[in-house]
Amino acid sequence: MKRLLLTIVMLFALAVPAAADDWGDALAAYNRGDYATALRLWKPLAEQGNAWAQFSLGLMYARGQGVTQNYAEALRWYRLAAEQGFSYAQWSLGLMYENGQGVPQNYAEAMKWYRLAAEQGSAEAQRNLGSMYENGVGVLQNYAEALIWYQRSAELGDAVAQYYLGNMYAEGKGVPLNYTKSLTWKKRAAEQGHAIAQYDLGKMHFSGEGVPINFVEAHKWFNLALAGLPAAAELSDLRARWFDVLATLSSVMTPEQIAEAQRLAAEWKPKPERPPGKQ
């Protein structure tokens, strides 16, 4: 699924399901890529009403792991878990409705399931709600409401929400324009490894937007952004533009400044704010 990025290892790290032996064997099989065994062990648990197992099957059908990819079947298992109040499944069901996977695209249904998950503390669902309010998707555009949901998600440590919140402050959407607060939120996202936030942080240090001009810091963040940008073909133009900005910056720096920026980038380590498996 387009934004379903959590791995199965993370998702189940906090679980304590019934039928622990079968569960553990299924998880071990999944982790070693033996999807047929994982499916065989999880399916009886799912049929008995175990929400974790139902969600697991939904994920496997959505990804085509051990089965032919089948969004309709993924939707069925997600719904069974979601109707039990399982927030991972509610969020996933919302994604399927938003993206029209296995079901006609339906933003109202997406909002419904996101909200149910968000009210249980799902940072991803809170962020998705914020995005729908910001962009007026399935709901009247409402920057104030978007800000509320982004803030909740950002405070839980969601890097994407932190970046979006930083943009809200940078553009004065729902709040007075505030480059200092924009910098604060984008830096939190950047420190977690969010490439676009890193690039924006570089621009802010380059131009002195919300922070004193600092070419070394700007160069460091541009380098990190380029290193963290996925090597997807559709991002090639973006990558080229970022390289051009880095070249422009480098042209006004001394060799010593560039060396210092490269050293800082090489020593940088991401600082995740959320424990593995926390939705």
Short overview:
This protein has 279 residues and is an all-alpha fold. It has helices spanning 8-11, 20-31, 35-47, 51-63, 71-82, 87-99, 107-118, 123-135, 143-155, 159-171, 179-191, 195-207, 215-228, 236-250, 255-267. The protein folds into 3 domains: 18-114, Alpha Horseshoe (Serine Threonine Protein Phosphatase 5, Tetratricopeptide repeat); 121-189, Alpha Horseshoe (Serine Threonine Protein Phosphatase 5, Tetratricopeptide repeat), CATH 1.25.40.10; 193-272, no CATH class.
Please give the structural blueprint:
Blueprint (H helix, E strand, L loop, with lengths): L7 H4 L8 H12 L3 H13 L3 H13 L7 H12 L4 H13 L7 H12 L4 H13 L7 H13 L3 H13 L7 H13 L3 H13 L7 H14 L7 H15 L4 H13 L12
Q: Would you mind describing this structure in some detail?
A:
This protein has 279 residues and is mainly α. The protein has 3 domains: 18-114, Serine Threonine Protein Phosphatase 5, Tetratricopeptide repeat (Alpha Horseshoe); 121-189, Serine Threonine Protein Phosphatase 5, Tetratricopeptide repeat (Alpha Horseshoe); 193-272, no CATH class. Helices cover 67% and strands 0% of the residues. The protein has helices at 8-11, 20-31, 35-47, 51-63, 71-82, 87-99, 107-118, 123-135, 143-155, 159-171, 179-191, 195-207, 215-228, 236-250, 255-267. The model is unreliable at 1-10 and 12-18 (pLDDT under 50).
